[in-house]
Amino acid sequence: MIEPPDPLPKKPEGFGEPAVVELADGTLWMVFRSIFGELWQCQSRDGGLAWGPPSSTGRASPLANPRAATIPGTGTVVLVWNFAKPGRKTAWGAGPSSLNVWGPRMPLAIAVSHDSCRTWSCPTIIDERKSVYANLHFSDNELFVHYEFQSPGATKYQTGLAVYTLKELANQPAWTHESIQPYIDAGLVAPWLERNIP
Questions:
Q1: Tens digit of pLDDT for each residue in 111-131?
Q2: Domain that holds residue 100
Q3: How many domains does the chain have?
Q4: In this structure, are residues 131 and 145 in contact, taking their beta carbons and an 8 Å threshold?
Q5: What is the pTM of this model?
Q6: Is the peptide bond before 107 cis (omega within 30 degrees of 0)?
Q7: What is the pairing mode between strands 158-165 and 142-150?
Q8: For the CA atoms of 107, 196, 194, 9, what is the dihedral angle to 10 degrees?
Q9: How many CB atoms lie within 10 A of CB 130?
Q10: For 65, 110, 116, 152, which has the most beta carbons within 10 A of its beta carbon?
Q11: What angle do CA 196, 1, 110 make, to 5 degrees?
Q12: 3-state secondary structure 28-64
């Protein structure tokens, strides 16, 4: 597995739990969790034998695994992830001022890309509660997002299911200068992404 390029730190964890999709031109796009408060990505043009340098997607995420898949028969990529900035550590025996790179794992969001992961739709929130381990399954007309969630005050996880028609996903609105600005202001999207928006 690849690790963060020098001089970036490699602890407490490097890159991990990747999701890989094949793009329309045969390129493999891999997205993975990182300790840097954002999802990171890289690409392979030789079927996964070698990978290009990793880079940030600019989308906020704790150290939580993303899921990605291509809608069958299309070039549309679906991404599901915990769309949040890392919070303060309240577990694992650390003091309250320590950064919690593992959470919060809420909300769970979905976005789609129609241009080989260069730009994305506005995120749609799947679940506001703590949500983990999403899986994506397709039927002829629908996407099923299966995940585990924990209600406030609960000690156990429950099973969640969100269903989207493929037509809904195809019509997700793209980010514009106006619609992305609140996410930039909230620190959820890197400002440099604004340059890539028409």
A1: 999 999 988 999 999 999 999
A2: 63-190
A3: 1
A4: no
A5: 0.88
A6: yes
A7: antiparallel
A8: 60
A9: 19
A10: 110
A11: 40
A12: EEEEEECCCCEEEEEEECCCCCCCCCCEEEEEECCCC
